[in-house]
Each structure stands twice: as structure tokens, then as C-alpha cells.
Design brief:
Length: about 280
């Protein structure tokens, strides 16, 4: 009998991870609903990219579970992990295209690496993916000939080349002009719906991200500070979430780095030889 897939394609359960003595995620539980666009947001250093690395299996949680379609990434062997990764696409920050091969070959790379498709079929798939991001005519260009927005779209075509179930976006809007940013946001939403994808978007751009997201998760201080629809997160009474959403310069995330008081610093007598 066919089994009903879990409603959440990705789930972190009571997950903790850190680098040495520095805790990044502390007993975090969150879910990424299947077929939706989920935004992962929060202040810099809050663990957003770490979550993507945990899902992709580049790093392993110290405790808890990282579930992908019901299977725990944390305990997978190499062959099972590679099989899971073939169901994932990744759009790296600034694209991360291979600089010494053409646009066409960049998009063809995962198809040639992971399938035994004929050259003719690879060509058709590459052109279809490039057409989906509006760059079929740029197939013979080199990455150095692309604008920042075009490079990001080529990287997106490469990320969806294998028709993945999950696409992860690490800061897809960073460094883009308003036109390219709006184009990238629309592509994420349209491709998610047209291809039946599940998308995780790590971003600091509130307006565009809230516009395309079905669910928003805000990470702070190693925990989930808020999660829900964009409107629910906007209405959150959590002081840190309020500061983040309103872009306030001071609040739980302080403007001044911790240090001696003003009285201690400016009232102190200069040392011998001091100026």
C-alpha cells in the first residue's frame, strides 16, 4: 500500500549544533511544509546558513534529528546521503558558477554528473531550464560575461536541473539591483508553484521575502524566536522579532558592542606615557 508522505518535507527536532564551545543552535524544532516557500530569517550569525548545511548533510547535528522526507540525515551513510542530496537543489550566495565553463555547461554539470542521459536529452533539459529563467539566449556566454542578476538566474537553472524536491536559497537577493531582485523573487515563487517544489529562502530582505513566503521562521540566539505566516511574524510581540522586522538600530541586538562603561573609559587616568 502506498504510504502518505509526511506533511513537512524538512523537520528539525530538538536539534543542537555548535562549533567547539560556541553554540549556534540550541534544542531547535522547526518544520518546512511540503510545496511551500519558507523563509529563514534573523540577525547575522543566527544560524540560518548552518540550518542549510545540516539539511544538506555537510555538517551533522550534535543532538536531535534533521529529517528530510521522514528520513534522518544525521544518521545516513554516504550512499543514502548522496541519494538524498540528488533530491535537493542549492542556490549559493552570489551563484558560485564554475568560471571556466559556459552557461550551458554550468547547467548541464549536475545532469552529466548524476545521470546517464544522452547528450541530446541533456541539451533539451538545459535549454528548458534556461528558458524557465529567461536566459536560453545566453547559453554560450561565459560567467564573466554575465551581470550579477543573470549569474544568479543561471545558478537557479543549475539548481533545478535535476527537478529536485527541495531548493535551498542562501541570500538570493544579496547585491542585486531592484529590477534583478524583483525578477529573482518572482522566479522563486513561480518556479516553486509550477514545479511543485519546496523552497527554503535565507534572506535579510524583508519586503521581497515576506511577499513571496508562505511561512517565515526567525532564528535568534540559537532558538526559534517566531514562526508563522508573514503577517503573524510582523505582529509578533517578541522584542527581538519586533526589532528585526522594524529594522530598529537598538534593542535586544545592541548597537554598542559590550565593553567598559563610559565613566570607566573616559574617567580613567591615562597610563604613564599615554596620550
Amino acid at each position: 500500500m502506498p504510504t502518505t508522505p509526511p506533511p513537512h518535507l524538512v523537520e528539525l527536532r530538538n536539534l543542537s549544533f555548535g562549533y567547539g564551545d560556541r553554540a549556534i543552535l540550541d534544542n531547535v524544532t522547526l518544520t518546512v511544509p511540503r510545496g511551500k516557500v519558507t523563509a529563514l530569517m534573523g540577525a547575522s550569525g543566527g544560524g540560518k546558513t548552518t540550518v542549510l548545511r545540516l539539511i544538506g548533510g555537510q555538517i551533522r547535528a550534535q543532538s536531535g534529528q534533521t529529517l528530510f522526507d521522514g528520513d534522518d540525515i544525521t544518521v545516513m551513510g554516504q550512499s543514502a546521503l548522496y541519494a538524498a542530496r540528488r533530491r535537493m537543489g542549492m542556490l549559493f550566495q552570489f551563484g558560485a558558477l564554475f568560471t571556466d565553463i559556459s552557461v550551458f555547461d554550468n547547467v548541464a554539470f549536475p545532469l552529466r554528473e548524476h545521470t546517464d542521459l544522452s547528450a541530446a536529452l541533456v541539451r533539451d533539459i538545459v535549454l528548458m531550464k534556461l528558458n524557465a529563467v529567461g536566459l536560453r539566449g545566453a547559453r554560450d556566454l561565459m560567467p564573466s560575461e554575465l551581470s550579477g542578476g543573470m549569474a544568479r538566474r543561471v545558478a537557479l537553472a543549475r539548481a533545478i536541473a535535476l527537478d529536485p524536491d527541495l531548493v535551498m536559497y542562501d541570500e538570493p537577493f544579496a547585491g542585486l539591483d531592484p529590477i534583478s531582485l524583483g525578477t529573482a523573487a518572482r522566479l522563486i515563487r513561480d518556479l516553486n508553484d509550477a514545479m511543485g517544489l519546496t523552497s527554503i529562502v535565507v534572506s535579510h530582505d524583508l519586503d521581497e521575502t515576506f511577499h513571496i513566503a508562505d511561512k517565515v521562521i526567525v532564528l535568534a540566539n540559537g532558538h526559534v524566536a517566531a514562526q508563522g505566516t508573514p503577517e503573524e511574524v510582523r505582529q509578533s510581540t517578541d522584542p527581538l522579532v519586533h526589532q528585526f522586522v522594524q529594522a530598529l538600530p537598538d534593542g535586544p541586538v545592541r548597537f554598542h558592542h559590550p565593553g567598559p562603561s563610559l565613566a570607566d573609559d573616559f574617567g580613567a587616568q591615562p597610563r604613564s606615557g599615554g596620550r
